[in-house]
Predict the structure of 6,7-dimethyl-8-ribityllumazine synthase.
Amino acid sequence: MSEVKGPSPNAKVDGSSLRIAIVHARWNKVIIDALVTGALNKLKEAGVKESNIIIESVPGSFELPLACSRMIAGSHIQVASNEVDLLGGLNFSSVNSPKVASRSGTPAPTIPSSNQAFDAVIAIGVLIKGATMHFEYICDAVSHSLMKIQVDTGVPVIFGVLTALNDDQALERAGLGKGDKKGHNHGEEWGLAAVEMGSHVRRWN
Ligand code: DLZ
């Protein structure tokens, strides 16, 4: 019997030629770690090579749009070739860090024909409502900015930002809920969405 909610499992895509970036915030780290792991597992299951996955972190969700925008523009590659240090002291890493972009001059992934550094970017953050209006402002700004980046650049930006009203809601959406409310790790769908959209956009270009 099919589920009412969630994506259909039918879209099986070969990710072996795709380049994917994961950009994540560091607020609410335990939940973030589970979501990043979920996304990463699905990327690898779909055949995305470790050398074509880059993981970058930023302080909080509010910083995700700028980081995604610069990753799509390929700023990390310019840093790697020591031409222009656009990102100051930021420390880029990847699943397979010795083989990809770094400030030490090791080879960066080649830029695909679309002239974009990545086929898709997954933006991961966990926003949990507090006592003030901070949550509403950040949720609104981040969701609109991420949508604008993907539409303006033509590079899919997967919306991996949990906007939870309390800790339990966030934990359950990372598969970390308590007792019989363990929930499901939404990072897995974000990984699959990145592969599917990256592959679609290659065809559509
Ligand atoms: C300030 C703040 C607060 C209150 N809550 C969160 C949160 O729940 N999740 C998150 O990712 N970031 C939070 N931040 C940090 C902001 O996103 C941002 O990093 C700072 O305001 C600095 O620009």
Q: What stands out?
A: Residues 78-113 have pLDDT under 50 and may be disordered. Residues 122 and 158 are 5 Å apart (CA to CA). The chain has one domain: 20-204.
